Amino acid sequence: MVAQPGLTGQSRPGGRAVAEPDAATPLINAATPGRFTLAQLLTVLDVRGDVPPVPVRSLRSPHGGVLGAQQLGQQIVLAERLTPGKTVHSLHTVFSRPGDCELPMWIDVEHLAHGRSVGALALSVRQHSQALSRTNIMLRAPEPDLGRFTPTTVMPAGPETAVDLPIRLIPWEARLLPQRAEFQLEHWVRAADAGDDPTLWRALIAHACEFMPLDDIARLSGMVTPTGEIMPDTTALVLSITVTYFAELDVREWLLYRVSALSIAGGRTTSRVEILTRAGELRAEASVVGILRRRH
Question: What's the pTM value of the predicted model, to 2 decimals?
Answer without folding.
Answer: 0.89
